[in-house]
């Protein structure tokens, strides 16, 4: 064989087994390094995403809960108005307006709704709060005829319907009643007759004037909202003296920690629903992953925030709670913490009650 042919044969030889093994080892080392970087980046991304979800749940929870707390016990007229409730049955929580704010410690169940293990049931051992107020943007009252139980308002688009529980107020008093007749979009008259013929619980009287004890006769105590001191005479305001008055739908909510459909816990809000004149309660999941809620209250002339169990019935009804400290524990779903558990954050927020600010 010539030297030229031998040289060509050498140039076409393949890798040896040792060279192939070394190449494979080096390739595996590179793949392992790439895999480690990928896994690290994946873990970082998952942790960041989980933290983002935790923060978002906390933000939504505080934003919506704080709004209801801030507006609790408020009305569209002025603070500290005497309130007269003419509803037939004040046993349901949404019909009882003795206090615009009421707190429950972890051992105290809601009236009419105990602790439970089902979806949307309240978790035993967690605090809760009940909040009531009138919608701040009330509808102006043009005239009020107490004898016919008719409130004429400034717009036909008042968005009030038979069965709605509302509050009328002026600078003299406020009254809570159930709408018995209204046609939003076509008519500007709101009717508040007595009886329970069409809606429940209905009104014990069509008279909305303050009365102690309550006057539940058919006409009750006549009071004309929009007339100075409610004085009504000969089909009009006495001496033609008037002052501003509004009517607005009541907002009643309950906030609590409940069981969600995924085997965890969430922050829930229970709200009143009116379906064709039939009242019911919706329980809505607001923020997932909220494991715990601790609520404490600042009393007038108090030095420290106290638990609900330390607030007396008189404190609640007399409006002596000025602010609420909300402490939420929020947990993620992914196991990405350095302790081998899901991320968890505890966040505290203090909310002053606007209607009771000094």
Automatic annotation (TrEMBL):
InterPro entries: N_methyl_site, PilW. It comes from the Bacteria. Keywords: Membrane, Transmembrane, Transmembrane helix. The chain crosses the membrane at residues 20-38. One of its GO terms (biological process) is type IV pilus assembly. Pfam families: N_methyl, PilW. This is PilW family protein.
